[in-house]
């Protein structure tokens, strides 16, 4: 119960009036930006990163926690009222939520999403506080080979196993790894793919990549399409409160969603997509009235929304304890940490326990603030959806470019941002997943140096990776996860041929 | 296996395949030019060779897929994309020639609004100017970040 004492101490830090103010600002900004159509949590965090540049690490991390959770809440509002999910994890929420809104039940849909998010986040953050110290104890004994194995799993699960097409996912990952090569190698000082451009020697900034791919890419994509589909936000009619029946139908999906979301998020299994889809199918199977699914079943909002938020809190477990980002949002968060020269991982818990536990405590506080903000004030956020599309995207682009040149005032950086925007546009157009690029950029160099450290320690013997049971198991899992979709697909095709 | 449609090769997939091969080639060339060698195990070039191989494999995959994938990305409003590109280009040009953040961002705002179908140039110009000036004042004065200066910025 050592962690409980630390957590209490963390609350001491987080309840400091100044830090409370930071949390409140973070929550407000996070919700406001997250509500905007086409902007998911990853982009919300990336766009708001420059605002926290000049604050002290403690305060800005706390603000960050608020932005992260706020972006998650805001994203579900857009999915329900506008049917334009900001990221793949809200796709499922949009399925039933938008149907509910069309049938005049937008209020209860928003309410069950907000309360479900609150319940899930509360439980999952408790899980984080409980499991993180245990994992830190294990992780502190990890050798570089173990880290290499873990990263392999993360690569494969993020890109290959669950995407619509493994070839597209792996291609995204390859591009991310390629971008990760650019710059000076940490171990030898060798420049890779810099082509003599001084700006490239420092490598590609994660925030520049994320903002380019998500914000600029999205703006270009929406510009190319908006003539052909015109979504208008649906006004909330009737009571926003949930009826007694809504409560009865919602509470079990919340808990089940949490139970599905947290472990999957906490494992390096990548993203909130899988748990939301799993939760959706589970609820459809267990529902009293399965025929309502597709027409606005409240269970189909409650479960996936809870799963989404629980897995978001879950991804903080590998991020904080191992320094491993397993989703685009986590990758951007990691960039935020690195901005203050903090390297998440087991050592962070030892060296800066006040920071880590202050952050965890503020996650609890941000969660409560968000429930208060979202339930009564949801009407206010909905107004943001009424900003005309031209001004909205013009504003997003101005803000996105501003963030990049504020962080690194150079024309070359801006050109890179635009180039990544074009890349993001092409990827969106031809249906390539974007998260593997961001994860590849961050994890690529980390995996490279972990592998080379292992080989240095074994004097060049590659068997070192297989001699340690931990790394051997993890590499086995990664290989299995990489080959499984191809094998199963092959089997399926084989069977079809038999017919 | 079903036979591919009569349209034959899927052009975009083919282009992506060629781009991936090109990237793989550049990476391989870059790796083979590296000077620093590691004492034990792998040097800095090993990862480059790996990524080059990976990219080439993906390129080969796309080459095969070009015969199978046929999904059309749907209608595209290239004019709108062009307007956004013009906006981004103006911001880059503004910074390149030292016209400053406010002028560049205002142009970006106006052209992007045009891309999404607005034609009220004057109103958008005013709104963009207010927004850009607001952002500049907030970040340069309040948060002391340095946004690029130009003639307009020096007035403050």
Automatic annotation (TrEMBL), chain A:
Domain DUF112: 20-438
InterPro entries: DUF112_TM
Organism from which the protein derives: Paracoccus acridae
Transmembrane region(s): 20-49, 61-82, 109-135, 147-164, 170-188, 316-335, 355-375, 387-405, 411-427, 434-451, 471-492
Keywords assigned: Membrane, Transmembrane, Transmembrane helix
Superkingdom of the organism of origin: Bacteria
PANTHER family found in the cross-reference section: TRICARBOXYLIC TRANSPORT PROTEIN
Protein's UniProt name: Tripartite tricarboxylate transporter TctA
Pfam family, one: TctA
TrEMBL record, chain B:
Domain of life: Bacteria
Keywords noted in UniProt: Membrane, Transmembrane, Transmembrane helix
Transmembrane regions: 12-28, 49-69, 81-109, 121-139
InterPro entries in alphabetical order: DUF1468
Residue span(s) of domain DUF1468: 15-148
A UniProt-annotated Pfam family: TctB
Name under which the protein is recorded: Tricarboxylic transport membrane protein
Phylogenetic classification of the source organism: Bacteria, Pseudomonadati, Pseudomonadota, Alphaproteobacteria, Rhodobacterales
């Amino acid at each position: 119960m050592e962690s409980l004492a630390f957590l209490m101490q963390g609350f001491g830090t987080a309840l400091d009036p100044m830090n409370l103010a930071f949390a409140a600002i973070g929550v407000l900004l996070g919700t406001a930006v997250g509500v905007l159509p086409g902007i998911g949590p990853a982009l919300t965090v990336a766009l708001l990163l420059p605002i926290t540049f000049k604050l002290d690490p403690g305060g800005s991390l706390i603000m960050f926690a608020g932005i992260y959770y706020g972006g998650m809440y805001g994203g579900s509002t857009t999915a329900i009222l506008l049917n334009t999910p900001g990221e793949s994890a809200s796709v499922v929420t949009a399925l039933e939520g938008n149907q509910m809104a069309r049938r005049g039940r937008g209020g209860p849909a928003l309410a069950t999403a907000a309360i479900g998010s609150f319940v899930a986040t509360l439980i999952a953050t408790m899980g984080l506080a409980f499991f993180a110290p245990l994992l830190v104890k294990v992780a502190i004994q990890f050798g570089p080979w173990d880290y290499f194995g873990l990263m392999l799993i993360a690569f494969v699960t993020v890109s290959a196993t669950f995407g619509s097409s493994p070839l597209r996912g792996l291609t995204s990952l390859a591009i991310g790894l390629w971008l990760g090569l650019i710059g000076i190698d940490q171990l030898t000082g060798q420049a890779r793919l810099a082509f003599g451009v001084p700006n490239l020697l420092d490598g590609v900034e994660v925030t520049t990549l994320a903002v380019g791919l998500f914000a600029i890419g999205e703006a270009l994509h929406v510009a190319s399409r908006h003539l052909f589909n015109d979504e208008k936000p649906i006004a909330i009619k009737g009571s926003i409160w949930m009826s007694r029946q809504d409560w009865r139908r919602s509470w079990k999906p919340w808990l089940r969603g949490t139970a599905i979301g947290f472990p999957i998020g906490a494992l390096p299994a990548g993203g909130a997509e899988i748990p939301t889809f799993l939760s959706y199918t589970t609820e459809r199977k267990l529902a009293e009235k399965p025929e309502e699914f597709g027409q606005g079943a409240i269970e189909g909002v409650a479960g996936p929304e809870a799963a989404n938020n629980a897995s978001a809190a879950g991804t903080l477990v590998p991020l904080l304890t191992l320094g491993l980002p397993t989703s685009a949002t986590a990758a951007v968060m990691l960039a935020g940490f690195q901005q203050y020269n903090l390297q998440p991982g087991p050592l962070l818990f030892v060296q800066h326990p006040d920071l880590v536990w202050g952050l965890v405590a503020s996650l609890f506080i941000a969660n409560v603030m968000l429930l208060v903000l979202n339930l009564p004030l949801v009407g206010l956020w909905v107004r943001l959806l009424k900003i005309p599309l031209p001004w909205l995207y013009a504003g997003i682009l101005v803000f996105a470019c501003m963030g990049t040149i504020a962080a690194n005032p150079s024309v070359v950086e801006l050109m890179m941002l635009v180039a990544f925007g074009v890349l993001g546009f092409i990827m969106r157009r031809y249906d390539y997943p974007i998260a593997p690029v961001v994860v590849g950029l961050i994890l690529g160099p980390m995996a490279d140096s972990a592998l080379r450290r292992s080989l240095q320690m074994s004097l060049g013997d590659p068997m070192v990776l297989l001699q340690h049971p931990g790394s051997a198991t993890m590499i086995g899992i990664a290989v299995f996860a990489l080959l499984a979709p191809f094998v199963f697909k092959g089997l399926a095709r084989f069977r079809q041929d038999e017919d | 296996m079903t036979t591919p449609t009569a349209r034959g090769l899927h052009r975009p997939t083919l282009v992506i395949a060629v781009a991936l091969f090109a990237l793989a080639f550049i990476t391989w060339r870059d790796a083979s030019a590296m000077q620093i060698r590691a004492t034990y195990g792998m040097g800095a070039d090993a990862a480059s060779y790996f990524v080059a191989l990976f990219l080439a494999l993906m390129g080969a995959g796309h080459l095969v897929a070009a015969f199978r994938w046929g999904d059309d990305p749907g209608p595209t409003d290239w004019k709108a994309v062009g307007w956004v590109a013009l906006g981004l280009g103006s911001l880059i040009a503004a910074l390149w020639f030292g016209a400053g953040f406010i002028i560049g961002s205002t142009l970006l705002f106006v052209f992007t609004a045009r891309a999404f179908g607005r034609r009220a140039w004057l109103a958008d110009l005013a709104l963009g100017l207010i927004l850009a000036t607001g952002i500049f004042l907030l970040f340069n004065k309040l948060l002391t970040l340095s946004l690029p200066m130009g003639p307009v910025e020096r007035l403050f």
